Amino acid sequence: MNVLLDHLDLFRDGFLGTVSLTATSALLALVLGVLIAGFRVSPVPPLRVFGTVWVTLLRNTPLTLLFLVAFFVLPQVVFPGISSYILGVLALGFYTSAFVCEAVRSGISTVPLGQAEAARSLGMTFVQTLRMVVLPQATRTVLPPLSSIIIALTKNSAIAGAFNNPELFSVQKVLSDKGFNVMVIFVWVALAYLVLVFAISGLFRLLERRLEVAR
């Protein structure tokens, strides 16, 4: 307990850093994931090819390698002077977007084809059909896998700690270097991750119940 109380500021900053990384990366991943899922079911062949390449490339690339590219290639080639926080968000968000895309695409496939055909018969465009007819019905099916994806993102954010981002796992390195018991530190870090995981699970369960009532 003394380790936690004596370094409460450090644990607090690490906890808030993990929350910030997770929330921002999740928002980016959700936006990109839905967009790429739309590409994958689009009637335009180049968009379908782009979506397939995006998902295949990112799902089969180790996240650590993606971090290395983000931190050692992007600043040299595209964005000199960009902050480590933004690079971490980009790496996490892009990687997770591929999994979000597949979850959303699976949800879209559960919506009866007749729904889209009826929308098109009313003169709706593909984008309007997707936004106003298909995605609202697919949301209920998509929520459970999205919950698991966001929880995995929370754990993956620990990699950002190795790239100069303050988060929970980086607290372990700082305190270990000071000679504190590693196992005690890991217990507190693990409990903090459990709090985040339970909070995310509770949020998604609440959303599922709300949508059940709406239906």
| Count of DSSP H/I helices | 10
SS strand fraction: under 5%
Count of β-strands: 0
Derived structural class: mainly alpha
Order of helices and strands: HHHHHHHHHH
The major pleated sheet works out as: none
Helix content: over 70%
The average pLDDT is 85
- CA-atom Rg in angstroms: 20 Å
Shape, per Cα inertia axes: globular
Low-confidence stretches: none
What gap, in angstroms, lies between the N and C termini? 47 Å
Subcellular location: Cell membrane
Protein name: Amino acid ABC transporter permease
Pfam family, one: BPD_transp_1
Transmembrane segments: 15-37, 49-73, 85-104, 141-163, 183-207
In short:
With 215 residues, this protein is mainly alpha-helical.
Structure characterization notes:
The structure is a single chain. The chain is mostly helical and 215 residues long. Helix content is 82%, strand content 0%. It has helices spanning 2-6, 8-40, 45-59, 63-72, 74-77, 84-109, 113-121, 126-156, 168-177, 182-214. Helix 4 crosses helix 6. The chain is globular and about 70 Å long. The chain starts with a helix and ends with a helix.
